Amino acid sequence: MLDRSFIRLQLKSTEALSGFFFQGKFQWCGEDIQSVHYIPAKADVTKLHSTVLNFLPEPVVVHSSVHGLICCRSCFPSQNPIIYVCNPVNKEWVSLPYPESDFQDSLALGFDPFVDPIDVKTNFKVIRVYEVEADMDNMDDIRYSFDIYSSQTGTWRKAVEICQCSSHLCKNKGLFVKGIFYWLTGGDKILMFDVKNEFSLLITVPLPLTQFNSIPEMCIGECDGRLHYVLISEHGLQLWVLEEQYTSQWDLKCSISLDKFEEENRVFAYNVREKITGPPASSPWIDPLVFKDGMLLMKITTDIFLFDFEAVKLKRLCSLYQLGPNSSNSSIVLPYTMSLVPLDYL
């Protein structure tokens, strides 16, 4: 058993992106796909791993990742669904009860070893965000409720806060950045939940979607402890950073024109402007999946690439075919950073 003080020091020096968890999803079915692939980010030749989570008691659906821990749940259908928080490196895990489980729930893991030291025990929170019955005065809006699980108490409780939003949640299940949870929606808003103060907020994205001639693609992610927003449109590839947690003030950190993107990546990308501005398709030609530490995992036609914003370079990792037959739409993609965080106190 490694000393917890050593593990805390290791966390400070190894916060680099390790890879990505990728799980396909049925588009029109209430059942889950059981296979989960791990895609290494730094290997010269990418080898997919499909047994990384096999130490868990059952097949799972991944929902959230932070500081080396993964939050996942039982695959549906399940008579007794369970939530797991696990560490794939040391193969330790804990299980939580799943209150009123629903296929559409989003689960997000909150854990910060630099704010809540792990010298004695590993404390974390899990947030369950879900849709509740619409307000009779405004049937067009979606109302989101939040349940909070604390590992310190071992119990769930419902937050008083209710957030009204005009759009459904999409893409990445939930992002935790310095005590704040974020969810991307299908509209012009990002749903924010402050778990300490238990209040929510809708953050407006940097550019309204109505200003584009073609359909833009976007995702959110974290870098240097700040929320980032990736936008791909006829204007190019843009990387925005949120200036203040409780505002909608964004700073344009990086902007790469489509011509520059194509010029630097001619082997993989050609006629980029025509393809991005062309007629809408059932699956976008280019799709940003998840951003972490300056690196963007993205889909281009039928392949998965890692894009380095600073170098403006694409690296092909694998094909969608290698990830399974239902990997092209609505897939779950999580960035992962290896750590030795223990879950051995229960």
Automatic annotation (TrEMBL):
Quote the protein name from its UniProt record.
F-box protein At3g26010-like beta-propeller domain-containing protein
Any Pfam family: b-prop_At3g26010-like
Enumerate the spans annotated as F-box protein At3g26010-like beta-propeller domain. Answer: 60-260
Q: Which organism is it from?
A: Daucus carota subsp. sativus (Carrot)
Species classification: Eukaryota, Viridiplantae, Streptophyta, Embryophyta, Tracheophyta
Q: Which NCBIfam families match?
A: F_box_assoc_1
